[in-house]
Amino acid sequence: MAEPLRLVLIGPPGVGKGTQATMLEQNFGVRPISSGVIFRNEIEAETDLGRLAKRYIDHGELVPNGVTIEMMAKRLRSDDVRKSGFVLDGFPRTVRQAEALDELLDEMDEHLTKVVSIEVPEDVVVGRLAGRLGCTKCGEIYQAQTKPPKREGLCDKCNGPLIVRSDDTPETTKARLHIFNEKTRPVIDYYAEKGNLLRVDGSGDPMDVYKEIIAP
Ligand code: ADP
Ligand code: ZN
């Protein structure tokens, strides 16, 4: 049997990682694993991890490596993910996390198919994040300028109420971009050195980005 796809998507907030992860799931059956989504679920469920994570997330800071790595390792070790493959969105975000991922994959005798860096000019992501709205029920993402909902404040798919994420404020957005440049850019260099990095232009239409990602 062919090896399942094992992908990592890296890019600044608002670059469209979640959209690409969903398309990859639909077409290849890989499990999308978003560290941000898992943290937001933990916050919603008011778990200890959620309470801890919220203190960092609300300021646009990174959650500490230890708990983040442990949380992601648990998912990656699950039978379903091992069988179906995965697309990681939001992890690894630091070189320490990338090293931990390597160790974990080595231990399971698995390998990354490729690592994709989705790249867009910084002013474009700032504009996208400023108008971002998410559905509280199904998680669908809208954007005031480029993808407005048909009815103001309501999800096209499920009628759920749309909200601005608590960390999409202008100050937090600035902090997140700063941390991306400082902590996550070195992760891109880390994979570039290993030779399995693919850089794609994320400023176009999601379908164009997708085609670049899956090109052999
Ligand atoms: P975005 O890509 O829009 O910044 P995410 O949903 O990926 O948003 O992440 C939201 C927040 O969750 C981050 O700003 C950070 O506080 C926290 N977070 C997510 N993934 C990680 C990670 N791998 N390491 C540390 N913190 C993380
Ligand atoms: Zn919805």
Structural commentary:
- The chain has 216 residues and is α/β, with parallel strands linked by helices.
- The chain has a single domain (6-121, 169-205), classed as Rossmann fold, CATH 3.40.50.300.
- The chain contains nine helices and eight strands.
- It has helices at 17-28, 35-44, 48-57, 65-76, 79-84, 95-108, 122-130, 170-194, 206-214, and strands spanning 6-10, 31-34, 86-89, 114-119, 132-135, 141-143, 162-163, 197-201.
- It binds adenosine-5'-diphosphate and zinc ion.
- The portion of residues forming beta strands comes to 15-25%
The CATH homologous superfamily corresponds to: P-loop containing nucleotide triphosphate hydrolases
Principal-axis shape equals globular
Bound compounds: adenosine-5'-diphosphate, zinc ion
Classification by helices and strands: alpha/beta
CATH topology value = Rossmann fold
**How many helix segments?**
9
CATH architecture designation = 3-Layer(aba) Sandwich
Low-confidence stretches: none
Question: How far apart are the first and last residues' alpha carbons, in Å?
Answer: 19 Å
Sheet of most strands: 5 strands, parallel
Total count of strands: 8
CATH class: Alpha Beta
Strand order of the biggest β-sheet: 2-3-1-4-8
| SSE pattern, N- to C-terminal | EHEHHHHEHEHEEEHEH
Q: State the share of residues found in helices, binned by percent.
A: 40-55%
